């Protein structure tokens, strides 16, 4: 697949998550809640996590922002559900490395839709948009511990 076709596919994946967000809404019952914003662009996210016995059993989000931040939240909540907390945090670190343009030793296919955001690394002003939900998740599970 050529670079242009791959770039177009990634844009479609991002826009699909933006227009049809997965896990948008609120959790019932006891859960962690983290509100975070990016004052430079106005992105705002409220992340809710249900963590039981070290496993992220459920994750929901709500918020306002650009297609990058809301798509990232949709992708992240999908990716961390059912994962051990330490695996979710490790995934966040890998995502942060990708956003910083670092080489990673992980098969990109393992990241699923998240790999569509790797092009954001070329636009430093948008990196905070993409990492906002991940930082909220890290903060939430850190507070839980």
Automatic annotation (TrEMBL):
GO terms for molecular function: iron ion binding; iron-sulfur cluster binding. Residues 10-129 form the NIF system FeS cluster assembly NifU N-terminal domain. Pfam families: NifU_N. One of its GO terms (biological process) is iron-sulfur cluster assembly. InterPro entries: NIF_FeS_clus_asmbl_NifU_N. PANTHER family: IRON-SULFUR CLUSTER ASSEMBLY ENZYME NIFU HOMOLOG. NCBIfam families: SUF_scaf_2. Belongs to the NifU family. This is Nitrogen fixation protein NifU. It comes from Pontibacillus yanchengensis Y32.
